[in-house]
Amino acid sequence: MAMLIYKIFRASEWATLQTNGATDGAPIDVADGYVHFSGADTVQKTASLYFQDEHDLVLVAVETDGLSDLKWEASRGGTLFPHLYRQLRMADVAWHKPLPIIDGAHQFPDLG
User: What is the pLDDT of residues 80-99, one digit of tens each?
Assistant: First the structure.
């Protein structure tokens, strides 16, 4: 079944994807050998754990239907997370939105 998965990028990482048309992801993605994503149920926790107090973030949504080289693997506490074993391409992006901090918390758009 098709669904959206989410990647949080720093502004510079998002700019690289836009400029180059593809990216290996953030430094942690490059180190791990895949692009880390979150589901709608885990992306806010990802933001609070790994991007706390970071400004100029961009939330990128990617449709899983037809996405090659995507694997769901256990990570934090055994929860399954989507990992993309190839470059993320601009053509994969369904939409992107800023992820501002208001009152100390990232403000997410409706992910439903």
Answer: 999 999 999 999 999 999 99
Whether pLDDT at 66 is above 90: no
Q: Could you tell me the sign of the dihedral formed by the alpha carbons of 89, 40, 57, 9, in that order?
A: negative
- Single-letter code of the amino acid located at 72: W
Confidence (pTM): 0.93
Please report the DSSP string for 15-79 in residue order.
HHHHHHSEE--SHHHHHHTSEE-B-TTTHHHHHHHHSTT--SEEEEEEE-TT-TTEEEEE-GGG-
Regarding beta strands 22-23 and 88-89, do their DSSP bridges make them parallel or antiparallel, or are they unpaired?
Answer: antiparallel
